[in-house]
Amino acid sequence: MAYRKTPAELDRLAAAREHLVERATAVVADVGWANASVTAVAAAAGMSVGSVYQHFPSKGALAVEVFRRASGREVEVLGEVLREGGRDPVERLALGVGVFARRAMESRGLAHALLAAPAEPAVGEERLLFRGRYREVFAEVIREGIGAGVLPGQDPDVTAAALTGAIGEVLVDPLSAPAEGDAADRLVTELVAMSLRCAGAAPAH
Amino acid sequence: MAYRKTPAELDRLAAAREHLVERATAVVADVGWANASVTAVAAAAGMSVGSVYQHFPSKGALAVEVFRRASGREVEVLGEVLREGGRDPVERLALGVGVFARRAMESRGLAHALLAAPAEPAVGEERLLFRGRYREVFAEVIREGIGAGVLPGQDPDVTAAALTGAIGEVLVDPLSAPAEGDAADRLVTELVAMSLRCAGAAPAH
Q: Any idea which residues the entry calls the DNA-binding region (chains A, B) (predicted)?
C-alpha cells in the first residue's frame, strides 16, 4: 500500500519546491547555468543536495523549471503590453519592445541566461519553444497593424520571427557587460527604432 | 625520448582527421548533434571508436571542430558577397542575405545544426563567437550604406546584431520542415525584404 501524504505535507512540499525554484533562479542569475550546480543551489536554498533531488530528478529538470518560470513571466508581460487597449498596433509594438528590453537590462544576469547563455540541451529545447511564444505575440500585433493599414504588406510570421531573433541578439552583449544608464537608454531607443523599421512602420511615427 | 612521427605519418594522420571531420559533418547534418554519437561517427568514417579519440579528445571537441569548419565556410561566403565590388551596399546586403538563406535551405540539416539546434555548451560557446563574426560583416556593409547615404542614420552594430539574430530565427522552422520549392523562394524573398526594411533601405530600391 502506497504511503499517502496528508494535505499539510503536500502544502509543505509545494512551498519547499517553490522556495527551491526561486533560490535556483537567483543562483542562475548570479553565476549562470554552468556554475549553478545542485550543490550551489542547495546551499542557496538552505537544503541538502538530497532534498533538491526529492523535488527534481536532475539538475537539468530543475534548470528547465527555472527557465520555464522566468521566461513565462517575460512573455506574459510582453503579450500584455502588445495587446493593451487604447493604443494603435505600432505604438504597442514600440512599447512592448521597450518594456522587454528595459526589464532585461534590469535583470541582466537572468536575462542573459534566458536569452543567450549556452545551456544544457534540455534548456535549449525549452528556449526554442519559448521563442515560438514570442513569435506568436509579435505576429498578432503585426497582423493587426497590417489590417489597420499602419504597417505595409508582409508575412507577419517572418517579421515576428525576425523580431524575436533580432531583439535577443541585440541584447546578448549589453546583458553581459556592466550596466551604464545612458548607454542602456540609447540601446533601448535604437532597439525600438530598429524593430519599427523591421516591421515597416513609417519612421516619423 | 619521445617517439617522433615521420612526415609521411603526419600526412596520413592529417588526411585521416580531415576525412573524420567531413564524415562527422555529414552525420550531424543527417541526424543532428544529439544523435551524432562517437560510435555513429566512427562507423560513418570507417574507423574504430578508439581512432576517433586519437584525433579528438572528446565528442565535444569533435563537435566544435565540425561547427567551426562549417560555420567558417558560411560566414566567409557571406562576407565575400557583402564586400563584392561593383554593387552598392544595399544591393550587396540583399544579395548576401539571399545567398545565405538559399545555401541554408539547400543544406537544411547542417544549417539547422549550425544555427539553432540545441547542442552541448561547447558548441553553444562557439555559436556565440560565430554570431560575432556575422555581426561584423553585416555592420561593415551597413556602415558603408550610411556613409554612402543609401541607408538612414542608425547604430550599425545594433542593426547588424538584429540581422544576425533575425535571419537565424526566421530560418529555424523552415530548416526543420521538408523542402518545398515555391515556399522556399517566397521565404527568401520575405527574408530579404525584412532585412532591407530592418536596415532602413527605401522599399522601392
A: 37-56
Chain A: residue nearest B196 by CA?
A: A198
Substitution target from B146, B154, B197 for chain A, most A beta carbons within 10 A: B197
In a domain, B100, yes or no: yes
Please answer yes or no on whether B193 and A154 come within 8 Å at the CB atom. yes
Are B178 and B146 in a shared domain?
yes
**Min distance B183 CA to chain A CA atoms (Å):** 12
pLDDT at B133: 96
ipTM: 0.86
Q: Which of A56, A80, A98 is the last residue of a domain?
A: A56
Do A81 and A40 belong to one domain? no
Q: Which domain holds residue A152?
A: 60-198
Check pLDDT > 70 for residue B2: no
Total count of domains within chain B: 2
Task: Please state the separation of Cα B59 from the chain's center in Å.
Answer: 20
Q: What residue type is B52 in one-letter code? A: V
Cell triple for residue A127? 528556449
pLDDT 10s digits, B169-186:
999 888 888 767 788 889
We report the CATH number of the domain holding residue A20 as: 1.10.10
Would you call A53 exposed, middle or buried from its count of C-beta atoms within 10 A (0-12, 13-18, 19+)? middle
CB-nearest partner of B194 from A131, A158, A190: A158
pLDDT in tens, B111-156: 999 998 888 889 988 998 999 999 999 999 999 999 999 999 999 9
CA distance A34 to B170: 28
Rounded Cα gap, residues A195 and A167, in angstroms:
8
Place of cell 561593383: B86
Q: For chain A, what is the mean pLDDT?
A: 92
Using alpha carbons, list the distances in angstroms from residue B28 to A61, A166, B76. 26, 26, 21
pLDDT in tens, B7-24: 998 899 999 999 999 999
Do residue B114 and residue B152 come from a single domain? yes
